[in-house]
Amino acid sequence: MIPLVDLTAQYHSIKKEIDAAVLSTLESGHFILGPAVTKFEESIASYLGVDFGIGLASGTDALVLALRALNIGAGDEVIIPAYTFFATAGTVMSVGAKPVFVDVDPQSYQIDVSKIKDAITSKTKAIIPVHLYGHPAEMNPILEIAREHGLKVIEDNAQGFGAEYLGRKTGTFGDIGCLSFFPTKNLGAFGDAGGVVTNDSALAERLRMLRTHGWKKKYYSEEVGYNSRLDALQAAILQAKLPYADAWNDKRRELARRYTAHLAPLGVATPVERNWGRHVYHLYIIRCPRRDELQAFLKQKGIASEVYYPLPPHLSVPCRRFGYKDGDFPHAELAARETLALPLYPELTLPQQDEVIAAVRVYRQKKSTIT
Ligand SMILES: *Cc1c(COP(=O)(O)O)cnc(C)c1O
Question: What is the pLDDT of residues 66-84, one digit of tens each?
Answer without folding.
Answer: 999 999 999 999 999 999 9
